[in-house]
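Let's sit down with a protein and look at its sequence and fold side by side. Once you have written the record down, we can walk along the chain together.
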Amino acid sequence: MQAYSDFISGIVAALLIFIALFFIFRHVVCWYWKINERVKLLEDIKMLLQDIRDFQNADELNEVLVDFHRENNPTSYEKL
């Protein structure tokens, strides 16, 4: 019976180590391929497309695009 519990505890320990390594390597891969930045950019694009769909007036659309650009590139407007 002792051998059986040692076997089960070894499997549980190996499984926990595998899960920890999986999350560590996943984080490194996401960082290396900049997946998190891509997700952020896609979310921004989605938001802008929804705004474009919702706006019918070109002036309002232009204001939204300028505001978005100012939020994401504040240094380009410091000279103005």
Observations:
- Helices lie at 2-32, 35-54, 58-72.
- The CA atoms of residues 53 and 77 lie 27 Å apart.
